[in-house]
Amino acid sequence: MKRNTVALTTFLALLLLPAQRQNAQVTADPALVAEINKIRAIDNHAHPLRYVGEGERTDDESDALPLENLEPFPLPVRLNPSNPEFINAWSNLYGYNYNDMSDAHIHELLRTKQRLMNEKSDSYPAWLLDQLNIETMFANRISTGRGLNAPRFRWVAFDDALMFPLSNEAAKKSNRDYSGFYPSEERLLKRYLADLHINSLPATLDEYVAKVVTLTLERQKHDGAVAIKFEAAYLRKLDFDEPNEKVARRVYARYAKGGEPSPSEYKTLQDYLFFYLAREAGRLGMAVHIHTIDGAGSYYRPGGSNPLLLETVFNDPTLRRTNFVIVHGGYPFTKQTASLMSKPSVYADFSAQTFLLYPHALSEILRNWLEFYPEKVLFGTDAFSFGPAVDWGEVAWLSNTTARQALALALTEMMNDGEITPERAVELARMVLRENAVKLYALKAN
Q: pTM of the predicted model, to two decimals?
């Protein structure tokens, strides 16, 4: 009996060891942290603001779908402008000497920031990258602008507008967020048409894709775009089905001059246009970035941005020349994202997770990805502006700091479990923070 009791006790102890180890707080290896902090990163996804000189119009082109058009919605903890982590950002970036967010101290901060902007002028955005040890930031913007020049900034153009050429009134009525977002896409399409000196939609779908879609992508490529971006999950589900060209032609021809297509008709046209855009991007050597995350807005549909909805796209043999990036890594569907990286042309960045999650939570996701397809993982900040005090530089600081901490934690755990050597850990860190992007976008390696 005593022997059985000892055996049972030993068995239970062994059974509990993995859980106890899993719950233990891991500390990142100091030598690895030091190496990671030296790496000049390439930021796969951000929304930096151009430099605005005195008397110039405020920059309103950092996103095709500005959140100001939505009803108020709650912010996650770390993105709230009152998050005290931003005090550390101010200290590191601007020498802020206080440990509070009092109005008087914020006013002093804003004066300091404005003085720096005035002194550095067009070099101010690049100066911010230097403070973050980021070599290149991919600027998701309607257009570039002062201070956002290559090679420090690379343009990613927005092309959802080209997918919605017909009446969007039915969609606007179906979702309150859609009613705030669709007008922005309609204005952007008019802008793209005006850039081509086209006053109205062509009569046929063949003319539209040849004279509007292809020529717009070629202009974007000529102007320096390395990728095109889709925020379609804010406008519809990501369930792009195999396109029916015959039906798409008929729908376009019937409604190009007016009238309202049914949801199913319009979806068929949108699916066709998405596949066409993706093929053209591949032909031109531009990657396709797709927003996939639990997004902003009170009426956003998280299930509509599950990356598994893109299986038909990623499996299409006509799109194998196109590289796709699952932007934001599909959070919270990150394990589904890991499975999709098995596709030869599919990559993922973990931008936005870098300010939604704390380092330990993010490290678990990164470890899962690194144990599957480390050559497909990209760093990103999703830096954007909340205003003068918490601007895109502060969000970039929070994301950059979190990403490096999380990466160090994930790699330390892999070393502790004997999966990788310290040398391999540094190699993986360099891959994630820069080398994977260098290869994907054929950037000049420094």
A: 0.93
